[in-house]
Amino acid sequence: MEKRLVLKNEISEINRLAMFIEELGEELNLAPDLVFNLNLVLEEAVSNVILYAYPKEEHQEIHLTAKKSDKNLIFVLTDSGKEFDPTQAPDADITLSAEERPIGGLGIFLIRQIMDKVEYQRIDGKNVLTLGKQLDE
Known about the structure:
Elements: E1 2-8, H1 14-28, H2 32-52, E2 61-69, E3 72-79, H3 106-114, E4 117-123, E5 126-134
Helix pairs in contact: 1-2, 2-3
């Protein structure tokens, strides 16, 4: 099974992303809490691309592929924006209070906590983020 979604780098596209994840959850009969977590992770990853990868008013596409094989669900997020490797970002210090904690990094922390695989590559001028989740079937 493989599904694809092409998004514009506009924050309103997060709604289309959520519908895509919901449909995927239904097709694969995924548990509601897993669908919620996948939506959280992908919303975080895609919104980071929308907000930070491109200059304002530059219209670009973000490609998402979801593939299920055996007991693994793999998402590949590709954009041609500014190079950013989330796997190299430091972990957020969750021991600090909200007031003391610097802005940023919590979304990447969530992605690392929820997903079993987080890999980044820069290929032909594109950011390629691969996120994997092992399914309990």
